[in-house]
Write a structure and sequence with these properties.
heterotrimer; A alpha+beta (157); B alpha+beta (763); C alpha+beta (291); A: 157 residues; alpha+beta; Ubiquitin-like (UB roll); 31% helix; globular; C: 291 residues; Enolase-like, domain 1; four-stranded antiparallel beta sheet
């Protein structure tokens, strides 16, 4: 059995080097290797979206990407959204609209919403519901999440 | 567009406002530490080996290969639980309870459900632990699985436990049975009541096992030190419950166990029981290193608590003018592998919305080869309400009475006695029904039907007790004039905010000056779980009482500083002032700033077991559309109306109502455990266990009806559970209005709707 | 998950060599949305995972009104529906590409992977079959082409031999007055496995009133995606009418051999084949008429 693989990638704007086993998912790498536990595991098979990250600007489930597959690529996680100046407008909108209850799905929803609003700040309710269909929330019934994303879109225009 | 309405009678400074939750920032930036996020020096990772069979006898377990596998640090089986070395005589009356608790953690003689833990491994990383677990050899003798309450209750049924006897109406059966308990509640004379009825409807209903569906999997991390100190970190609704459960199965003193509750990724009643914590503890004891276990999603479905499946018969009679004369029900709820279904709770809730003269309820707690059921939001009440509210709808139809009007004519109100005894204090069911009747949703006719689609509207009501129980708060006045509130209640969804608001209200200081936090079991008095819709009420009372104490101590301190009499000093709007000398005046912050030089910190604590919880009622209205070619039901419009007492943070109250409605919609339409002929669950993923996604739901409108609970100074009742009660029947009733078929089995899947439509057409 | 090795070949020949060296213990990974779940759940076991995403031919996507559409086996769904020219020319394909999984899955999953995974419920396979798609395969013994309807051989099995790989799927140029559509029935509104899926494509005459030809393909009603040839052929030369569409629907039902399982019963599935065949044909006709 050969040893772990060296990977170099850009995560939240920083160049990162790490070692991982080829069988480790990007989600495992983020959480267990890099200690970035903001990205959550809900199902580990691509059906809940809790582990959503931006991969070269596009949302993906990090449980369905191998750590070795991010070699030379760019990943943005929930930890990369707020800046020294404050929260990202989507994060702020989630707070103001009470769009989280237990909060475990929240990082995935916020990152997924960013993937949408970066391209389409005008997205309407139907578009938002369609875009977020891969993110499960069990607490809110989605109502306040959809309102928060609408609200954030207004601010991001 | 109607959205969220709050019907308030009393306004407060902080109660009823919508501030940002204190834990919000950490949760939107990914910094909040949930159970699976913990890491410790030398942390090992565990994996559980689980039974592939629903019912089998364990003939042998060989762990030798796993123990020898490189990287493995410990392997455990049921033999490592204290129960294995305790005799029946030593345990006496507690024998069976400990046997069930221990066997549930790690199967001893028999496995009783697919996914039942048989052994566990700790290793350097999760992949190695998984590889090693596969090397454990277990020899099973398969037994026939018993999967439904009907099978389980039948004469000659295969027994899950050869030492389980039926406890029925104060007696214990002579022969072993799968029926753990039978309870009866009775008032008046139902035979006479049905004789007096102009219309009687009797129907039988079934509901499938469903899961709470929290997104965060169960997890447990433990460190067992050489001196016997056991530290545990986990996601739980109640750290003290975890502590006492661990003390029980590990036979370890509570004083040697410290449980730290991590942030919690959803519970809904399903994160009260212990699963992985004792395994992590035993693996840590054996390896000498901290051990973390996290379930995968398959394990969550197969081995953590679903809500009980049910078989419920309901018979109700009413006079021509729509007054109930008799209500009768038989409720059998499956407990899963060990006793403890919410059958009794279901029975008590069944007719709780109605004032009726004659009633008879029989409830059965039945074991089957499914994972042990756990609480799920208003345990038992949704199943019962599905049956009862469907029968009420049919009564209304037969009598030609509007369903809201019928409920108003029979509504429970202050003074109505529930069948199991308690008399309602001030409750708000009538107000909810009136709000429903006048709501724009109810006043607007159902939209016209596009071709091929049928539309209908349904209404149902629901009840939950709400609870009190033990809570503790410690308050500390900080030198900068802020107040730290340390509580034993875990924050599932805004507890920090609602406790901070009540504290701010009680002290008359700013919400931002309250700093709430949640303590481990060594650092606060015993606090019961966050559940039962009790926390905002009971922990709220604890902080209000402690706040009164803080005020009194501040008065005493001011008096000491001024060398005045205590009774001459008063606390008004967060200002300390002398009653007769207007020169003597100090703001809250000024006094706080002087505490360290005038006698030290001011703290207060409150431990409380409050009576006076306010019962909760809801009425939901739903419009559905049925595609008669595919059988698919879509939710077009949904309105949830509930008496919440005073809503402390209306946004999170609305969130509870919306979230509960969404779970109820899932329960009604698509969620169910599929078992194959061998009793194995076949849909243990979020792909095939179909919880509602964002596209499946409309905005969920809410009406918060605020009928103050007389048992709380601000009128708080508790909110979280009732919203899941009405949706099941409301949707079934709407499907009936749309299609003319009564759906007497949940979920109302497209396949079932098609079958029903075909039967209706005679095809 | 058991240990795997991971290789990132840059050329087809390098990839073929890697695959050939491990036989059925090697598997190509495109988006990984099926493969990783299967490996993790123990439903598939391999020693070597070969990345398809560094090989230019597998990432090519081109469309011209002369040569039709070439979709490299590793091209993710979202790139397909984000391309306006492709979306306009192949709406029936877009129907499927835009409903596989959620947006996250579409960021990774490829039509090539969907085809190779050979699930009876694979959403993109019926429209590919209906549109006359052809699989281009490379292997140690050279390359070959297989019609999409002949590609799947059983649940999770396909015609690829050890050391072979799918390079691309080619879809012919849409002829004038043609249209296609894919619909599936699922209990939720997204994120679900088709209880039944139906892909149809039609060619109409200039008047738009008569079928010149049609192809119909079904998902989730047999061990492999079904090419319901007789159902499509029954429309050739017939007028567009409720009756002819009904007849085709009945023939589609006849081509289905569903089982009853937790996702649906035989009767329900047969019924849905009829419903969805009718609905997709109506949409395809509408599109063929330029609607």
């Amino acid at each position: 059995m050969p040893g772990p693989t060296h990977v170099q990638a850009t995560i939240n704007g920083e160049e990162v080097n790490f070692l991982c086993e080829p069988r480790q998912s990007l989600l495992e790498v983020l959480r267990d290797v890099l200690g970035m536990t903001g990205t959550k595991e809900g199902c580990n098979d691509g059906n809940c979206g809790a582990c959503t990250v931006l991969f070269d600007g596009r949302i993906i489930d990090s449980c369905l990407v191998l750590g070795v597959e991010i070699q030379g690529r760019e990943v943005t996680t929930i930890e990369g959204l707020a800046t020294a100046d404050g929260l990202h407008p989507i994060q702020q909108a989630f707070l103001e609209n009470a769009a989280l209850q237990c909060g475990i799905c929240t990082p995935g929803f916020i990152v997924a919403a960013k993937g949408l609003l970066d391209e389409e700040p005008d997205a309407d309710e139907g578009r938002i519901r369609h875009w977020l269909a891969g993110n499960l929330c069990r607490c809110t019934g989605y109502d306040k999440i959809v309102r928060a994303v609408l609200d954030a879109g207004e601010k991001m225009k | 567009m109607v959205a969220n309405i709050v019907l308030s009678e009393v306004e407060y400074t902080h109660i009823g406002k919508r501030p940002i939750r204190p834990d919000g920032v950490d949760k939107v930036i990914g910094r909040a530490q949930y159970g699976p996020d913990i890491t410790l020096k030398g942390l090992l990772h565990g994996k559980v080996l689980r039974s592939p069979y629903a019912h089998a006898r364990i003939k042998s377990i060989d762990t030798s290969q796993a123990e020898d596998y490189p990287g493995v640090k410990a392997v455990i089986t049921a033999q490592d639980l204290p129960f294995a070395s305790l005799s029946k005589e030593e345990l006496g009356a507690g024998y069976q309870a400990l046997k069930f608790a221990s066997d549930h953690i790690l199967a001893g003689g028999k496995v009783l459900f697919k996914g039942h833990p048989v052994a566990a491994v700790a290793a350097a990383n999760p992949h190695v632990a998984e590889e090693a677990a596969k090397l454990i050899k277990v020899e099973y003798e398969e037994l026939p699985p018993v999967m439904s309450v009907l099978e389980a209750m039948a004469d000659g049924a295969t027994l899950l436990h050869d030492d389980l006897y039926t406890s029925s109406l104060g007696e214990t059966s002579q022969t072993a049975s799968n029926v753990a308990a039978h309870a009866r509640y009775e008032k008046g004379d139902v035979v006479q009541g049905f004789d007096e009825a102009a219309v009687v409807v009797e129907r039988e209903f079934q509901t499938a096992s469903v899961h709470q569906g929290y997104i965060e999997p169960h997890n447990g991390t433990a460190l067992w030190s050489a001196d016997g100190q056991l530290d545990v970190w986990c996601s739980t609704q109640g750290a003290f419950t975890v502590r006492s459960s661990l003390a029980n199965v590990l036979r370890h003193p509570v004083s040697k166990i410290k449980v730290t509750p991590m942030e919690m990724g959803g519970g809904f009643g399903g994160k009260i029981s212990i699963y992985l914590e004792p395994l992590a503890a035993l693996l840590s004891k054996k390896s000498g290193q901290p051990v973390k276990l996290v379930m995968n999603r398959v394990e969550v479905f197969e081995a953590s608590g679903p809500a009980a499946g049910s078989l419920i018969k309901v018979k109700m009679g009413a006079t021509k003018d729509g007054k109930l004369t008799a209500c009768q029900a038989e409720l059998a709820l499956d407990a899963g592998a060990y006793p403890g279904s919410p059958a009794m709770s279901a029975a008590m809730c069944a007719f709780a919305c109605y004032d009726y003269p004659n009633g008879l309820l029989d409830a059965y707690d039945v074991v089957v080869n499914k994972p042990k059921t756990q609480a799920y939001r208003a345990p038992g009440s949704p199943q019962a309400a599905y049956a009862v509210e469907s029968v009420v709808d049919e009564l209304c139809e037969k009598l030609g009475i509007d369903p809201v009007e019928f409920r108003l004519r029979n509504a429970s109100k202050e003074g109505t006695r529930r069948i199991e005894g308690p008399v309602y204090r001030r409750i708000g069911l009538v107000e909810c029904l009136e709000a429903a009747r006048s709501h724009n949703h109810y006043q607007t006719p159902v939209d016209v039907q596009p071709s091929g689609k049928l539309r209908g509207r349904g209404v149902a009501s629901g009840f939950w007790f709400n609870r009190g129980f033990v809570s503790s708060c410690n308050l500390t006045l900080n030198p900068d004039g802020t107040v730290s509130v340390v509580m034993g209640s875990v924050d599932l969804c805004g507890t920090r905010a609602s406790i901070a608001q009540q504290t701010a209200e009680a002290l008359g200081i700013a919400y931002e000056d309250i700093k709430p936090s949640i303590a481990d079991t060594d650092s606060i008095g015993y606090t019961f779980i966050t559940g039962g819709s009790r926390t905002t009420f009971a922990t709220g009372l604890a902080t209000i009482n402690a706040s009164q104490d803080i005020k009194q101590r501040m008065i005493e301190r001011a008096a000491a500083i001024w060398e005045a009499k205590v009774e001459d000093v008063e606390y008004v709007d967060a200002v300390l002032q002398h009653k007769s000398d207007s020169e003597l005046r100090m703001t809250f912050k000024e006094l706080a700033g002087r505490t360290l030089t005038t006698g030290g910190s001011i703290t207060a604590q409150c431990n409380i077991d409050p009576p006076g919880e306010g019962n909760s009622f809801a009425v939901h209205i739903v419009d559905v559309e049925v595609d008669q070619e595919t059988g698919k039901v879509d939710i077009l419009r949904y309105t949830a109306i509930q008496d919440c007492g005073k809503a402390v943070h209306p946004s999170y109250v609305e969130g509870q109502m919306q979230g509960g409605a969404a779970q109820g919609i899932g329960w009604a339409l698509n969620e169910e455990y599929f078992f194959n002929g061998q009793g194995q669950m076949t849909n243990s993923s979020f792909l095939d266990y179909r919880m509602p996604i964002s596209l499946d739901l409309p905005m969920i409108d809410t009406v918060i009806v605020e009928v103050a609970n007389p048992g709380h100074p601000y009128g708080v009742r508790g909110v979280g559970e009732t919203p899941i009660v009405p949706p099941l029947a409301a949707i079934a009733n709407a499907v009936y209005q749309a299609t003319g078929v009564r759906m007497q089995s949940l979920p109302i899947t497209p396949g079932k709707v098609l079958d029903a439509l075909w039967s209706q057409n005679g095809s | 998950m058991d240990w795997i090795d991971f290789a990132t070949p840059k050329t087809i020949s390098e990839a073929v060599e890697l695959l050939a060296s491990k036989g059925d213990r090697a598997r190509l990974i495109a988006g990984g949305t099926d493969l990783l779940v299967q490996l993790r759940g123990g439903r598939r076991s391999v020693d070597l995972v070969v990345d398809a995403k560094q090989i230019p031919e597998l990432n090519e996507m081109s469309y011209s009104p002369q040569n039709g559409l070439v979709i490299g086996a590793a091209v993710p769904c979202y790139l397909i529906y984000a391309d306006n020219a492709i979306a306009e020319a192949y709406p029936g394909l877009i129907d499927a590409a835009s409903l596989i999984g959620g947006i996250q899955i579409q960021g990774r999953a490829s039509l090539g992977g969907n085809l190779c995974n050979a699930a009876p419920s694979g959403d993109s396979i019926p429209p590919i079959i209906a549109l006359g798609g052809v699989a281009h395969i490379a292997g140690s013994n050279g390359s070959r082409q297989v019609a999409a309807e002949d590609f799947c051989t059983g649940p999770g099995r396909n015609v690829l031999q050890d050391g072979e790989m799918l390079v691309s799927i080619n879809i012919p140029v849409p002829v004038a007055h043609s249209g296609a559509s894919y619909l599936r029935f699922i209990p939720r509104n997204e994120m679900d496995i088709a209880v039944v899926g139906v892909g149809t494509s039609v060619v109409l005459d200039e008047s738009g009133q008569n079928f010149v030809s049609a192809r119909i393909s079904l998902a989730s009603v047999a061990p492999i995606p079904v090419f319901a040839k007789e159902a499509g052929d029954s429309l050739a030369g017939k007028p567009v009418s409720e009756a002819t569409i009904q007849e085709a629907s009945e023939k589609a039902i006849a081509a289905a051999t569903p089982i009853s399982d937790m996702r649906g019963t035989i009767r329900q599935r047969n019924h849905l084949v009829g419903v969805l065949t009718r609905r997709t044909l109506n949409i395809a006709v509408e599109r063929a008429r330029g609607g």
